[in-house]
Amino acid sequence: MRGRAGIGKAALVRHSFAAAKASDIPCLLVDGRGTKQMLLDIMEQLHDLLGLVIPSDTLGPKLKARARLRGGLEWRNLARTLSRITVIESGNIIIATLRKAPVAVFIEALEVSPQKADLFARMMEVANVVAGMDEKNKRIRISRMLWKFQTVIELKPLPVETCEQIARAWLEKRPIRFSDERTRSRFIRHVAQTSGGVPAAISGLLETAAQEEEVTPAKARQFTHEAGITYMDMTPLIVVGVVIAMAGRYVSRGIGEVEMLVFSGVATALFMGLRFFMWQLRAR
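The structure corresponding to this sequence follows.
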């Protein structure tokens, strides 16, 4: 699932996980916790689902004896020991356990560190994976995993009419005081237009307005939310502008214009500096 920030990728992943779990499909959910906590959470889910495949040298003598006596160990007996092992060892246990049976893995977001990206790439080799990803994510370690997904779902912004319906339904459950009915209608239109069709922006605008004692006509159009703002990539325009400036350097030489030559020289130096930073950003 791919889309802009706030479009609902994580929410859709969680909903899909809940539906799969209700259908008795073996599945686990990977949220956005820190690496160590995330690994422990995955191992706990796999322990309840399939039973962990743990190397014998990982467990101490007492745990080994208890496992033989009881025919297995509960998670509370394993949690302390597994929290002390390395990230690589945790990943090996997870992959070995996933090989026992087909499991569907739901990952809320692929915008992750190199350690997590490496684990997710290994999980794709032994399990069916569903994940959400920001459409602007161009990192190489993420791009290398995309070809493994059989289907890519593009999440598009909601139509204005749908945004208005969501806002009205929200206001029915959590009424906000407006100075008059006309202001209420203006506010709903403002939410639908300003949100850009992004559910997170709709929710944020409504939550912000709910904190006001009364929404007046002046306030109705002042609410904004970061998720609803669309940014334009100015890189192509900058490159074109600098190329024109570089061309002006040769033109200025031909016509003998000193000021134009100086300006073109500064623009050329600026381009050489920007090129380094643009190349670094491209590699991320």
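Strands lie at 2-3, 27-30, 104-107, 128-131, 133-134.
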